[in-house]
Specification:
single chain; 390 residues; alpha/beta; FAD/NAD(P)-binding domain; D-Amino Acid Oxidase, Chain A, domain 2; 8-stranded mixed β-sheet; 12 helices; globular; binds 8-demethyl-8-dimethylamino-flavin-adenine-dinucleotide
C-alpha cells in the first residue's frame, strides 16, 4: 500500500481546510489535504458571502486577505425591517465594517495560494478514514484510482463539514451534542440583477422572513422563508419572484429586477454544536463541529476562526514551550463559537415567523421597536454581526 508521512492530515478542502493548510504552510508545518470531491465541484458550491473583520485578518495571515479588502463591497450597516418600519444598524457605532465577498471567491483565492505554495492536496480521495487518533501515531486511509493509500501523521484535522467522516468516527459516548432545528428553511436565489439596495435588509414579514442581500453591484442574493420540508422542484424562478415581491416593503419592491436564476436552493435552519472539539490527536474544525442558521452570517466566519485557532495551537505545540496548547484548543474555540451560536439563534427567532401564535409576533414587534429606540441594543447587534474579537 503506498504510504506517505506528514505532520498534519487535513480532511476536507472547504474554507476551514484550505485556511488551515495555508496557515500551516506559512509556519513550516507539513500538511496534506484530502478532499473527496474534484476542484471544480468544490469551487461551484454557492454559500456564504459576508466576511467579518477578524475573518479578513485571518485571511491576511493566510496570505489571501488583500483581494477581499480590494474587491469586496464594504458593508457599513444593514436594515432590520418590519411592515413599513425600519431600524438601521450602523457598524460605525463599533468602529468596524464587514465585507461582502462570496465564499466561492474565498475558496478560489485559497486554492490558488495553495498551488503557489506547493501544498499537497489529493482531490477525489474516496473512503477517507481517520485511525488510531487516541495513540501517538495516528494515520489516515483513503482510496484513489482504485488503490488504497495510507498517510502517517502527528495530527488529524477534521475539516470535512457537517456530514463528514471525522465527527462520525468518534464514539457516541465520547461526544456531547447540542442542537435545535427550526421548522423552516431559506429558499435562496442568486441572479444577475441589480440589487434592490446596496444595503442588506433582514425583513420580518407576518407570512415569513425575507432577506435582500447581494454578491456585487450586479449580482443579487435573495432569500425567502419556506417550510422545512419544502420541495425545491415546486419552485421556479418566476414563482420565487412573485412571492418575493409580494412580501417586500414598497420602497424595495419598486427597485426589484427579476431574471433567470443562476442558482436556487433550500438551506435548512439548524443550530448544532459537538463538544469537545478534540479527541486525542483528532481535531474538529468548522462545520464538522458546529452549524448555525445563516441568519447571523456566521458559518463561514466560524469555520475560518477555528482554522486560525488550530493553526496557532499547532504552531505553539511544534515550537515548544506550550505543552498545554493542544489541550486548550477545544475550550478556546468553544468560547467564541457559543457566542456566535447564540447570536445566530437570536436573530433567527427575532426575524422569522416562528408559529401561528399572535403572542410570539407581538414579542418580536416589541423587540424590534425597542431596538429602534435603543443605541445599546443596536450596538450589541453591530458588534456581534461584525465579529467579536477572538
Ligand atoms: P465545508 O464548506 O462543508 O467543507 C467541507 C469539505 O470537506 C469535504 N468532505 C470530505 N473530504 C474528504 N472525505 C470526506 N469524508 C469528506 N466529507 C466532506 C467536502 O467535500 C467539503 O469540500 O465546511 P467548512 O470548511 O467547515 O466551511 C463551512 C462553511 O462552508 C459553512 O459554514 C457556510 O457555507 C454556511 N453557510 C453560510 N454561512 C454564512 O456565513 N452565510 C451564509 O449565507 C451561508 N449560506 C451556508 C449557506 C451553508 C450551506 N450549506 C452547507 C447547505 C448556504 C448553504 C446552502
Amino acid at each position: 500500500m503506498p504510504t506517505e508521512r506528514t505532520q498534519v492530515v487535513i480532511i476536507g478542502a472547504g474554507p476551514a481546510g484550505l485556511v488551515l493548510g495555508q496557515l500551516l504552510q506559512k509556519c513550516g508545518i507539513d500538511n496534506i489535504i484530502l478532499e473527496r470531491r474534484d476542484p471544480d465541484y468544490v469551487l461551484g458550491r454557492i454559500r456564504a458571502g459576508v466576511l467579518e473583520t477578524p475573518t479578513v485578518q485571518a485571511l491576511k495571515e493566510a496570505g489571501v486577505g488583500d483581494k477581499p479588502e480590494r474587491e469586496g463591497l464594504h458593508m457599513n450597516g444593514f436594515n432590520l425591517r418590519w411592515g413599513e418600519e425600519r431600524c438601521h444598524i450602523d457598524f460605525g457605532m463599533v468602529g468596524k465594517h464587514a465585507l461582502v465577498y462570496g465564499q466561492t471567491r474565498v475558496t478560489r483565492d485559497l486554492m490558488q495560494a495553495r498551488q503557489a505554495s506547493g501544498g499537497i492536496t489529493h482531490y477525489e480521495a474516496e473512503d477517507v478514514q481517520p485511525h488510531d487518533f487516541d495513540s501517538e501515531r495516528p494515520w489516515v486511509s483513503y482510496h484513489k484510482d482504485g488503490q488504497e493509500h495510507r498517510i502517517e501523521c502527528d495530527f488529524i484535522a477534521g475539516c470535512d463539514g457537517f456530514h463528514g467522516v471525522s465527527r462520525q468516527s468518534i464514539p457516541a459516548e465520547r461526544k456531547q451534542e447540542f442542537e435545535t432545528a427550526f421548522p423552516f428553511g431559506w429558499l435562496g436565489i442568486l441572479a444577475d440583477v441589480t440589487p434592490v439596495s446596496e444595503e442588506v435588509s433582514w425583513i420580518n414579514h407576518p407570512e415569513g422572513f425575507l432577506m435582500c442581500s447581494l454578491r456585487s453591484r450586479t449580482r443579487s442574493r435573495y432569500y425567502l422563508q419556506v417550510p422545512k420540508n419544502e420541495d425545491i422542484r415546486q419552485w421556479s424562478a418566476d414563482r420565487f419572484w412573485v412571492e418575493y415581491e409580494r412580501r417586500l416593503p414598497r420602497d424595495l419592491a419598486a427597485n426589484l429586477q427579476t431574471g433567470p436564476a443562476l442558482e436556487m436552493s433550500i438551506t435548512p435552519l439548524h443550530s448544532y454544536v459537538c463538544t469537545p472539539m478534540r479527541f486525542g490527536r483528532l481535531f474538529l474544525v468548522g462545520d464538522a463541529a458546529h452549524i448555525v442558521p445563516p441568519t447571523g452570517a456566521k458559518g463561514l466566519n466560524l469555520a475560518i476562526g477555528d482554522a486560525q485557532e488550530l493553526a496557532h495551537t499547532l504552531h505553539a505545540h511544534y515550537s515548544g514551550g506550550h505543552p498545554d496548547a493542544i489541550e486548550q484548543y477545544s475550550d478556546r474555540a468553544l468560547g467564541r463559537i457559543w457566542k456566535a451560536v447564540r447570536f445566530s439563534w437570536w436573530m433567527t427567532t427575532l426575524m422569522h415567523k416562528l408559529s401561528d401564535q399572535p403572542f410570539e409576533r407581538q414579542i418580536q414587534l416589541a423587540e424590534l421597536e425597542y431596538t429602534r429606540g435603543s443605541k445599546a441594543a443596536q450596538t450589541a447587534i453591530a458588534e456581534n454581526f461584525c465579529g467579536l474579537d477572538h
